[in-house]
Design a protein that fits this description.
single chain, 678 residues, alpha/beta, Rossmann fold, Cobalt-precorrin-4 Transmethylase, domain 1, 7 domains, five-stranded mixed β-barrel, 29% helix, elongated
């Protein structure tokens, strides 16, 4: 009897990942409750039960202190919310390929997408979980015929702008038929090929193997959907196809007459069960042909060692050199990891990354039977784990951080979780940046907008803007909750207009009116502040309905009248500068912002016909402050009071004129009339 074992038989990546998570929890001494059977295999469920793991139907059934494990099929959003609301510790073992479908249907736009169509079994937990993530109506169909009937009985608008996905274990051949129907009938469908690549490979290999065999055996639990599909495919090309659950189900009499037997197994079939089936089949081979039996056993052993690993193996570090790490992977060949395959970063010393005795997961890169070696990689396994983690983080809309390592055409590249993330220029900041080089080599926070892979090509797109927008919203909410008149803030000048300056206070903007920028008159805000300046301001007024904030910038201690009160009392002498001349006297600047009037009678110790005869604009001279009216903002000055008494000529006594503070020298006519009247 010739026995051929399918290379893809046994656990798929998602199932293997889920089972490992349960074993890891049990090994750590934790109590485990799986939400439904961890996989559709009674033998495996019983084995885990013997170690203390229990199966529950709903989160509320979780024993106290137990960790809830969500199986690879995934669950609805409602169930995840229930787990969280109950405060349960959760281990989410949802297959990343299933999580991707959840993300697709959850992200549907109700305005654009009117419904979701799922190719699969509506009673299967995976399909039920997918439906539980959709916010729009869902329809399911098992095959192309059911799809056609479905499309005939629902409104056209429901299927024209719909999202189409498939259960990860759906038949590849049937999906192709459905695809043609969708493209033919629908005008604007969004079709996603969500069948797991491992499922496709498994089905294709099983069908080819069945076609070349006299007898075909499919191993798997009767509740397993993907095993059912394998059985259907094999039955079409091999009339003697048998579906068994364990070695006890083998029909020894029927097999004894077979010349060639093909063997495959569902994605939820443990390697132990497959080995038991193969061992029992080996006993049926002719005992006299020793060499053939030994060859078969050697082949079986080799197949089982590579079984269910997706080209991955567990290895134990046995020695370390400056260029390589040697590991024992349980095979006859010697395993080694080149230093550059330990990590994505530079590896100066392999001992910095692993130590003797470490057990690590590795990817087989190359087997050299002549030299008896296996070249392995740790970084590629890490990359896959990081990729799975990125898919999960994208689904959770989580915030990540990473360094901007490169500025490229149209955006920047951020290195995070051992992957390059592209941030488009439109998503690199809150406002459009023409030059992105200031971001280079900075640490940024971002969210993932897209994590997808087509063949070997990976696409990861992120957004810094998304995080900044949320941060700004949080700051804005906190600001409005605590704002009050008179409260001071430190902000950044963001823009200038002819009438004022806009200041970013951290989430919100306020305006400093031009009149509030300086105690002296200015023509433009740029005379005081510039864009980018950090300024200290205070709230003068605000309106929560219009979200407008009026800011003050001038400080009381900088008020020139307060400076005058403090430093220039009446009878003090100041050096002043002539700022303007009128027919009745001259205005002189005492300090910036305050001008005093020197009446014509106080310009000299003699009679003056015209002020221009004794002073000119720009002259600096000593003058005595003879009167200050702080209410009316007026100052009177006298030069005459400082001249020696002996030199004072007899002159007609003139009525004292009080100066008008800050009166522009150019407004001669108005000022003259006002001063004369007084």
């Amino acid at each position: 009897m010739e026995i051929k074992l399918a290379k893809t038989a046994g656990f798929c990546f998602g199932v293997n990942r889920a089972v490992k998570k349960v074993y890891s929890l049990l090994d750590d001494g934790k109590s485990v409750a799986t939400l439904g059977p961890i996989i559709h295999n009674t033998e495996m469920v019983n084995e885990l039960k013997s170690r203390g793991a229990v199966t529950i139907d709903k989160p509320s059934d979780t024993p106290e202190g137990a960790t809830v494990v969500v199986r690879s099929h995934g669950v609805s959003r409602r169930v995840m919310d229930e787990i969280q609301s109950l405060g349960l510790e959760c281990c989410d073992a949802t297959c990343p390929f299933v999580s991707k479908i959840h993300s697709i249907v959850a992200g549907a736009d109700p305005e654009k997408n009117k419904s979701v169509f799922i190719a699969g079994d509506e009673n299967h937990p995976e399909v039920q979980g997918i439906m539980g993530h959709a916010m729009i109506p869902c329809y399911t169909y098992k095959d192309n015929d059911e799809l056609n009937n479905l499309l005939k009985n629902i409104p056209q608008e429901k299927y024209n702008s719909a999202i189409y996905v498939a259960q990860t274990t759906f038949s590849e051949k049937e999906w192709k038929k459905c695809f043609k129907t969708i493209k033919k009938v629908c005008t604007n469908p969004e079709i996603f090929d969500t069948i797991c690549s491992a499922t496709h490979s498994r089905q294709a290999e099983a069908e080819n193997l069945a076609a070349d065999s006299d007898f075909m055996i499919v191993i798997g639990d009767k509740k397993s959907s993907n095993t059912s599909k394998l059985f259907e495919l094999c039955s079409r090309v091999c009339k003697d196809t048998l579906w068994i659950q364990t070695a006890d189900d083998l029909p020894t009499e029927r097999l004894s007459n077979a010349c060639s037997v093909g063997v495959t197994a569902g994605a939820s079939t443990p390697a132990r069960i497959i080995k038991e089936v193969l061992d029992k089949m080996a006993e049926l081979t002719t005992s006299g042909v020793t060499n053939e039996t030994e060859d078969f056993e050697a082949l079986l052993e080799e197949n089982l060692k590579g079984l269910n690993t997706n080209e991955r193996v567990m290895g134990t570090v046995i020695s370390i050199t400056p260029t390589e790490v040697y590991v024992d992977v349980g095979r006859k060949q010697a395993g080694f990891i080149p230093a550059e395959e330990l990590s994505f970063g530079p590896v100066h010393d392999p001992a910095d990354f692993v130590k003797v005795g470490d057990e690590i997961e590795l990817l087989i890169m190359k087997t050299n039977d002549v030299e008896g070696t296996i070249m392995l990689s740790k970084r590629r396994v890490d990359a896959k784990k990081d990729w799975d983690e990125l898919e999960k983080l994208a689904e959770e809309n989580a915030v990540l951080s990473g360094e901007v390592i490169e500025v490229v055409n149209g955006g920047v590249i951020v290195f995070a979780r051992n992957n390059r993330v592209f941030i488009p220029a439109s998503q690199a900041s809150m406002t459009r940046m023409e030059d992105l080089t200031p971001l280079l080599h900075t640490e940024v926070e971002f969210r993932l907008l897209e994590v997808s892979q087509r063949g070997r090509r990976k696409k990861i797109v992120g957004s810094i803007k998304s995080v900044l927008r949320d941060q700004r919203s949080e700051l804005k909410a906190a600001f409005w909750e605590n704002i009050e008149v008179g409260k001071t803030y430190t902000g950044t000048v963001k823009s200038l207009t002819t009438y004022g300056a806009f200041v970013d206070l951290g989430g919100v903007f306020g305006m400093i009116h031009i009149s509030e920028l300086s105690w002296t008159r200015i023509k433009h805000p740029s005379e005081v502040v510039n864009v980018g300046d950090t300024v200290e301001v205070y709230v003068k007024d605000f309106n929560t309905e219009t979200s407008k904030i009026s800011l003050g910038f001038k400080k009381a201690e900088d008020n020139p009248w307060e400076i005058l009160r403090r430093d220039y009392p009446v009878d003090s002498v100041a050096t002043v500068k002539i700022a303007g001349i009128t027919t009745f006297g001259a205005f002189a600047t005492i300090i910036p912002g305050i001008d005093g009037l020197i009446h014509i009678s106080q310009l000299a110790n003699k009679h003056v016909e015209k002020p221009q005869d004794v002073v000119s604009v720009g002259d600096e001279l000593e003058a005595k402050i003879v009167a200050i009216d702080f209410d009316k903002k007026r100052v009177s000055l006298s030069v005459r009071a400082l001249l020696p008494e002996a030199e004072v000529e007899t002159a007609p006594v003139e009525e004292e004129v009080v100066a008008v503070a800050e009166a522009p020298a150019t407004e001669e006519v108005a000022a003259t009339e006002e001063a004369t009247e007084e």
